[in-house]
Design goal:
The complex is a heterodimer of chains A (about 375) and B (about 160). Chain A is an alpha+beta fold and about 375 residues long. Chain A has 2 domains: about 50 residues, no CATH class; about 325 residues, Cytochrome-c3 Hydrogenase, chain B, CATH 1.10.645. Chain A contains 16 helices and 8 strands. In chain A, strand 4 and strand 5 form a beta hairpin. Chain A is globular. By secondary structure, chain B is α/β, with parallel strands linked by helices. Chain B has a domain of about 100 residues: NADH:ubiquinone oxidoreductase Nqo5 subunit (Beta Polymerase, domain 2, 2-Layer Sandwich). Chain B contains 3 helices and 7 strands. In chain B, the strands form 2 sheets. A 5-stranded mixed beta sheet of chain B has the order 1-2-5-4-3. In chain B, strands 6-7 form a two-stranded parallel sheet. In chain B, a hairpin with a 3-residue loop joins strand 3 and strand 4. The radius of gyration of chain B is 17 Å and the shape is elongated. Chain B starts with a helix and ends in a 33-residue tail after the last strand. The relative contact order of chain B is 0.14. The chains are: A alpha+beta (about 375), B alpha/beta (about 160). At the A-B interface, helix 9, strand 6, strand 7, strand 8 and helix 13 of A face strand 3 and helix 3 of B.
């Protein structure tokens, strides 16, 4: 159902639609069906000439009420719904839910499962950033990078398909460990992927990063100060581009992240280009993590022994993980039954989107797409 | 700051606050406090601005429907000291009202709008309390309340 938007002339006079009543204000709608919003997001933009006065997001076009659905699903079933939130980091979503349930059950996860989980998370992070990189360049009018990005992303998807049986909605990480053991080809394929990736990584910089047109469209655009990033609840690359240290893998380590060597990537410029560089450099850190683990996957069980029907004790449980987009929180309130009494997903995209109005005000309409691109919005993650 | 120190500090700031034991057992063991809705805004300002607390990052804001009452839940974190805590506040289910904290943590703007439409909580002095996710005409029906019925879209297992 579309929201009512009055015709342009009236809207500028109507304060409830963002018009200030001054002549010269123009209201335009971007979306819900627009290629630059990467999904069904509806932005109502108030313009004065070409300058943005206000951006007002209208959400809910893909709202499935996952939180309500989870209230009638068991602790084994609700994982499947969460793959559909941020479909580009489905492993990490599953991981967050599994961690939260495990906290309640107090089960120890076998070392093999922990390593597999971290490997999958990092592969997902690379795949997600690859897609973002291709789409980002396409938003700014460069079509070729999209194919370069998908070339590498395809090989990750092939690896996932063999082990998890799916290419997008994995449902592989479950409470107690992982769903099944790794495919025998896994190690070889990941190594082959890393070799391919290292040979191709310089193409990214040559094609896009060093391009002067690209840099001019990204630098000093969409400035976000560290104080605002914290106040707006930004996380992930969006906040780290402003110099806010917020990598959950470093601050509140889970699984084996505290034993691994990797850097938290930080930039201080706070503009679109800084957020862009963060993701490019994060992919290299993910490669570093995979290199440390791929030859050291311990033998043993891939799943801890758990009961067929899981029951969480009465109480509140919260788990935080770092997805490709930022901090994902899963808050489970249990009454002691087999289904959660209430679940809240604190999705990174929702908070990151709320900052869009703040950073877009005063800049030109043409730059809005560049700003939106660097926030890396995934709409099903925002709507849930 | 450790939980014990936080506890003493909060008792100093708001003697009426009560502490909740248990919950998240092995997890990070966050301090959980209960406050009256009327005390929340002044406490929030102190939590945000006090130099030894500096809870500047509101990372989760939600509500729970307990059928007899509603509970607001605020998860707070400090980016400088890295300590976390949870604030809960009981609301009357028939007339849920609490002060908005969107002036203190701006992320609360969107989160409070979500809670407003999903639970019907009225946030006083919120700058722009409108529907965010739900389509127009949903005012008054609150999908995440336990007694919400929708004959068309709800599948019961």
């Amino acid at each position: 159902m579309y929201r009512q938007t009055e015709i342009i002339n009236d809207a500028s006079q109507n304060p409830s639609l963002g018009g200030s009543g001054e002549t010269g204000d123009l209201i335009i709608n971007v979306g819900p069906q627009h290629p630059a919003t990467h999904g069904v997001l509806h932005l109502v933009i108030t313009l004065n000439g070409e300058t943005i006065k206000k951006v007002e997001p209208h959400l809910g076009f893909i709202h499935r009420s996952i939180e309500k659905m989870c209230e009638s699903l068991s602790y084994r079933q609700f994982i499947y719904v969460t793959s559909r939130m941020d479909y580009l980091s489905s492993h990490i979503n599953n991981h967050a839910c599994a961690l939260c349930v495990e906290k309640g059950l107090q089960v120890e996860i076998p070392p093999r499962a922990q390593v597999i989980r971290v490997l999958m998370d990092e592969l997902t992070r690379i795949a997600s950033h690859e897609l973002w990189w291709g789409a980002m360049a396409m938003d700014l009018g460069a079509f070729t990078p999209f194919f370069h990005a998908f070339r590498e992303r395809e090989s990750i998807n092939d690896i996932m398909e063999e082990t998890c049986g799916a290419r997008l909605t994995m449902n592989y990480i479950v409470p107690g460990g992982v769903m099944q053991d790794l495919h025998p080809n896994f190690q070889n394929k990941v190594k082959a992927f890393m070799q391919l990736y290292k040979r191709k990584i310089h193409e990214y910089d040559e094609l896009v990063t060093g391009n002067i047109i690209f840099q001019n469209r990204m630098k000093n655009i969409g400035y976000l100060s560290p104080e605002d990033a914290i106040s707006y609840g930004c996380s992930g690359p969006t906040a780290r581009g402003s110099g806010v240290s917020c990598d959950i893998r470093k601050i509140y380590p889970y699984e084996i992240y505290d034993k691994l060597e990797f850097d938290e990537v930080l930039e201080t410029a706070g503009d679109s280009f800084a957020r862009y560089m963060i993701r490019i450099r994060e992919m290299q850190q993910s490669i570093r993590i995979i290199e440390q683990l791929i030859d050291n996957i311990p033998e043993g069980d891939f799943q801890a022994k758990t009961k067929a029907v899981l029951k969480l004790p009465k109480g509140d449980f919260y788990s935080r993980v770092e997805t490709a987009r930022g901090e994902l929180g899963v808050y489970i309130v249990s009454e002691g039954g087999t289904t959660p009494y209430r679940i809240k997903f604190r999705s990174p995209g929702f908070s990151n989107l709320s900052v869009l109005d703040h950073i877009a005000r005063g800049s030109k309409l043409g730059d809005l797409v560049a700003m939106m691109g660097t926030l890396d919005l995934v709409i099903p993650d925002i709507d849930r | 700051m450790l939980n014990e120190e936080l506890k003493t500090k909060i008792t100093e700031l708001l003697p009426a606050a009560t502490f909740e034991e248990g919950g998240d057992p092995i997890a990070i063991g966050w301090l959980t406090i209960q406050v009256e809705p009327g005390d929340w805004l002044s406490l929030a300002q102190k939590l945000r601005n006090d130099n030894s607390l500096l809870f500047d990052y509101l990372f989760c804001l939600t509500c729970i429907d307990w059928k007899t009452h509603l509970t607001m839940v605020y998860h707070l974190s400090s980016t400088r000291y890295r300590h976390n805590m949870v604030v809960k506040s009981k609301l009357d289910r028939n007339k849920p009202e609490i002060e908005s904290v969107s002036a203190i943590w701006r992320t609360a703007d969107f989160h409070e709008r979500e809670v407003y439409e999903m639970f019907g909580v009225n946030f006083l002095n919120h700058p722009d309390l409108r529907l965010l996710i739900l389509p127009d005409g949903w005012e008054g029906k609150n999908p995440l309340r336990k007694d919400f019925e929708d004959a068309v879209n709800m599948i019961k297992l």
